[in-house]
Design a protein that fits this description.
single chain; 338 residues; BirA Bifunctional Protein, domain 2; 2 domains; 7-stranded mixed β-sheet; 19% strand; elongated
Length: 338
């Protein structure tokens, strides 16, 4: 059996040496070390040997297997080295390389992250909610009457089930108050949906960031100071901010917020960027009815809420004149933000 093992080892080493590619090399491995290989077959004969012969033959088998395995590894490395040299043959190492274009965050992502960062400095926590909503959370709980235009099918996307795509992220404010007792200080960035005609300033899907602060003694001064700080942190310390009286069903008093926009070559002009106000007591009463307690009773708490379009803020931040550029994924446009 010793002669047989030596003969198998010699044949295996010869086959490995003559292999011209990976396929032939793998064939040699299978022929000698595979389940039905010659050395494997010889190993099966160990059971027929005497106790005295088994140690000697076992050592020979192990030595042969090690030699064949080492030869396979060396040959494989040689074949790979030859393939690498062939791949590099004729390569002009003096040819300038092609520069890699760095990636970057989408302008809306950059604006949202910056806005969230500023709000976190003011103590606001992130909150989220579903984009498919009920009329209660989107309208009823926010003191929106049945005849309000926003509830019309011409303005809102309804499902056959009666649910709808949320028209604002104020729904997150309602769900947060349903689930948490005051004090509450949250922001809710996310998508909203309305049946708007798509043009240079409108999309049917847009991005909002809404905020809510409820505690025992929240007032208009807190609201004004918070939003003035936010816009000056976002656009610069010299940003002029003004509040104009307005009407929203869910806040009283209500305001629209303008900032003065300075564009090179043009006269400064005021542009509306957000809506806000003190939470209407009717909203707190709806929350108490939904919760089944008086945690948000208007005699116990006050609060303010605000909402802004992130798309519009991005347009102001970078002087983008057409909102559609934010959704067209034109690499020529997006590359300037990388």
């Amino acid at each position: 059996m010793q002669d047989e093992i030596q003969e198998i080892e010699a044949a295996a080493l010869a086959a490995i040496k003559s292999a011209r590619d990976e396929q032939e090399l793998d064939g040699a491995r299978v022929a000698f070390l595979g389940k039905k290989g010659r050395l494997t077959g010889a190993s099966a004969g160990m059971k027929n040997l005497s106790k005295e012969d088994k140690p000697v033959i076992g050592q020979l088998l192990n030595a042969a297997r090690s030699a064949i395995t080492a030869a396979l590894d060396a040959k494989r490395a040689g074949l790979q080295d030859a393939a690498d040299r062939a791949a590099l043959a004729g390569l002009d190492l003096t040819l300038p390389g092609r520069p890699a274009h760095p990636g970057g965050l989408h302008p809306l992502t950059r604006l949202r992250d910056r806005a969230v960062q500023i709000c976190r400095r003011l103590g606001f926590a992130l909150a989220e909610g579903p984009e498919i909503e009920t009329e209660f959370h989107c309208f009823d709980a926010l003191n929106t009457p049945p005849e309000h235009p926003a509830r019309n099918e011409k303005d809102t996307f309804y499902f056959d089930s009666g649910k709808l795509l949320r028209t604002h992220t104020s729904t997150v404010q309602i769900r947060t108050m349903e689930g948490e007792a005051p004090p509450v200080r949250i922001i809710a960035p996310g998508s909203a949906y309305r049946r708007d005609e798509i043009d240079a300033t409108h999309l049917s899907v847009f991005n909002q960031l809404e905020g809510l602060y409820v505690d025992t003694d929240v007032n208009v001064g807190d609201l004004k100071g918070t939003l003035e700080f936010f816009y000056r942190a976002l656009f610069g310390e010299d940003t002029e901010v003004r509040f104009r009286p307005h009407f929203f069903p869910f806040t009283e008093p209500s305001f629209e917020i303008d900032i003065k926009l300075h564009v090179k070559g043009q006269a400064p002009k005021w542009i509306e960027v957000a809506g806000c106000g003190m939470v209407d007591p009717a909203v707190f009463e709806s929350i108490c009815a939904s919760r089944g307690d008086d945690a948000y009773h208007p005699d116990k708490v006050t609060g303010f809420a605000f909402g802004m379009g992130l798309d519009r803020l991005a347009m102001i931040q970078w002087g983008i004149r057409d909102i559609r550029l934010l959704i067209e994924n034109d690499a020529r446009f997006l590359r300037q933000f990388a």
